[in-house]
Every structure is written in C-alpha cells, then in structure tokens.
Amino acid sequence: MTIAKGYKKGTRYICTQGPLDKTVSDFWRMIWQEDVNVVSMTANIIEHGKKKCEKYWPDKVLKVADLIITFQNEMVFIDYTIRNFKIVKMGVSGHRVVRQYQYTAWPDHGVPTYPLALIEMMQNMKDFQKEQQKASPWVLHCSAGVGRSGTVMVLDSALEMSLAEGKVDVLGILYKMRQQRVNLIETVEQYIFVYRALVEYHFGDISCKPANEMVLYFNKLRQLDADKKKTGLEIQFEKLRQLETPFFQQKCLTALTPNNKNKNRDPYILPPDDGRPVLKTSPPSNYINAVYAYDYGVQNRFVVTQYPLPNTVPDFWQLLWDTGSSTIVVLNEINNKDELNPSAIWFIVSYWGLNDSFRNCLLNATRCLMQDIWNLLWYSVSEKGMIFPDVCKKEVTWNL
C-alpha cells in the first residue's frame, strides 16, 4: 500500500495491489481505518486465464473481523460497473457507504480503446464524493497496483492541473508520483494514453446531456456559428473526425494477409484483430470483414460487416451461425439489376433463394414497421416542439 499526494492536495490516493485471499481482511480494515468511500478497480478477476485479483466483495454479506460489509446494488455499463456497499463496525453506531468502480474494459499491460469512458467514470467518482460531502482519498488497485492504477492517478492529477492552471506537466507529475510508488505507469502505451485522454477531454465535446434537455440542445446545435460560418452539428462532427483513431496496418494484420485481401470490399476499411469476430472454421478461412459494436450498456451487441462479396457469402452465413444472430439489417438497396454491385445477384440467390416470395413478405412487413416507427417519432418530436427542416416534412419513401 502507498499513500500518494495529488495535485496541490494532501493525501489523494491510496494505491495498493489487488487483494489476495489472505489480505481481504486487511483490505477492508484499511477501508474503514482511512474512512474511504471510493474504490477504483482497474482489473478483472480473471484475465487471459489467470487470476489477477481476489473477489473481495460479497454478493450479499461478508463478515471481516468486527466489520460487516453488505452488498446494496450494482449498475453495469459497457466499460465499467458500479457497486454500492454498506459497512458497519460492531460497537460503533451508524454505517458508512463505500462505492466501488470496476473498469472492466482495460487489458493488462494495455490501454482502453477510448479514453472518454474512463474519464466519465472518474468524474462519477468525484461527483459521488461531492454528494457524500466527503473528500476522502481514493483507493486504487489493479493487479500489481502500478500500471493501470498509476495511469488513473497521473491522469486525474493532470486533469486537475490543466483545469486549475491552463497548462499540464505529465512528465513532472509522473516523476513526483514515482518517488512515492515505483514503476507507476509500466508501458509507453499507458503513458501515451494519458496524453490522448487529456486531448479528448479538452478538445473533444463531452456531449452527454440530460434527456429532458435534448430538444433544446439539438436546436442549439442547428444554429449557425457567426464566426465559423458552420452549425454546431458541423463543428461537432469535424471534432469527431479530428479525434478518430488513425488507421494502423499493424492492428489489422489478419485482414492484410494474402489469403484475405480479396475478402475486403474496401482496402481502407478493415477490422482490427482485437475487435473482430473469428469464424469457427480452420485458418485462413476463419476471417471475415466484420467488427463487434457496442450498444448502450451491452458489449458486442451488434456485428457490423460489409455487404457480402461473391467469395464471402459462405463466410457471411458462418458468421450468423457462430454469433447466434437471428436478425439481419441490410442498409443498402438489394437490386438484381445492380450493375455497380456484381455480388448482388449472387447474394440474393444464396440469401433469399430463387423464389422472392419470402423476401417480398419480409420487406412489406419491414415497410409497415418502419412507417409505424416514423409516425411515432414524428408525433413525439412534434409534441416537444422540435423544428425540422422542410425537407424532413415531405413524404418518407422506404427504399427497401
């Protein structure tokens, strides 16, 4: 365990290793002794088949020495989980509330794909302490308590410094922290991640808004900026393009192998090796140009892929079988006479069969469903007073 100082503050962090079976009792005694109300866990219990940390929290109740820890509830998000606990010490009146933040999308010795989810979690930690009116030190742990935990500590202090002084010294912050706990931030990727997170925080657009403010927010974004001669929507979209992850061939090595190059419709739209579904067939035929995508609160909710090529139709069906997908959404026109898409006729014959009756039935049902959704959406936004451009008021034609 190391007690470390934050930006111009006293004790801000307690950095420790992930609890072992024989240290769970010590961990909870430390939580009570230091009056901690926030725990940051940047690890999973099992990673790559190895145990990284003991599951030190209860599903119901845990008794440790003279402490009783009771599980209250949890909230699961895509990248992290929040758990609330109540702690009672025998012989002491009252109870304390401890909230654990487990960041589940951080690979050991690696970095998260996107920084904003981590920043959001850290902001939630601060907001919780403000609600509790209790600025006790954060307890941070991963597995060894140096790499991922150190990254969070340095990022938090760097954000505090940048907001207070309008400048930041990541190297200086890390140097001082390493004098308190050795080897904080283990890899150059983690060091770079701190800079990426700072850039996204200050130059991105933290666009999360309360649902009841969305109409006003949208109308505001549609207004023209007098200086930039662009709407807020255009400015926001340009920021998004500036912050998008650059294309690195080394992240898409499987897609670039000689056996797989002809399976890519566009040579610049390739799936990274760490985010693509792997077909349950023998290499090299286990590749398909597809990626997993998140939905709100659900990892890998969608599988996004290109329109099948003539030589990838079997792979497409293998993908559906392997992932258990029962719904296909085709967003481009399916046309037997489409000369620009030579795979269309092949895909239609393989996919719909020679008899179009099933396809026509499905498309008619889809048209009805989409029209119902549009009518409901139009009614909802009209009631809220949202102003749409005239072009959106014209009849909607579902070209399916």
From TrEMBL:
<comment type="similarity">
    <text>Belongs to the protein-tyrosine phosphatase family.</text>
</comment>
<dbReference type="GO" id="GO:0004725">
    <property type="term" value="F:protein tyrosine phosphatase activity"/>
</dbReference>
<protein>
    <recommendedName>
        <fullName>protein-tyrosine-phosphatase</fullName>
        <ecNumber>3.1.3.48</ecNumber>
    </recommendedName>
</protein>
<dbReference type="InterPro" id="IPR016130">
    <property type="entry name" value="Tyr_Pase_AS"/>
</dbReference>
<keyword id="KW-0675">Receptor</keyword>
<keyword id="KW-0378">Hydrolase</keyword>
<dbReference type="InterPro" id="IPR003595">
    <property type="entry name" value="Tyr_Pase_cat"/>
</dbReference>
<dbReference type="InterPro" id="IPR050348">
    <property type="entry name" value="Protein-Tyr_Phosphatase"/>
</dbReference>
<dbReference type="InterPro" id="IPR000242">
    <property type="entry name" value="PTP_cat"/>
</dbReference>
<feature type="domain" description="Tyrosine-protein phosphatase">
    <location>
        <begin position="233"/>
        <end position="352"/>
    </location>
</feature>
<dbReference type="Pfam" id="PF00102">
    <property type="entry name" value="Y_phosphatase"/>
</dbReference>
<feature type="domain" description="Tyrosine specific protein phosphatases">
    <location>
        <begin position="119"/>
        <end position="192"/>
    </location>
</feature>
<dbReference type="InterPro" id="IPR000387">
    <property type="entry name" value="Tyr_Pase_dom"/>
</dbReference>
<keyword id="KW-0904">Protein phosphatase</keyword>
<feature type="domain" description="Tyrosine-protein phosphatase">
    <location>
        <begin position="1"/>
        <end position="201"/>
    </location>
</feature>
<dbReference type="GO" id="GO:0048666">
    <property type="term" value="P:neuron development"/>
</dbReference>
<dbReference type="InterPro" id="IPR029021">
    <property type="entry name" value="Prot-tyrosine_phosphatase-like"/>
</dbReference>
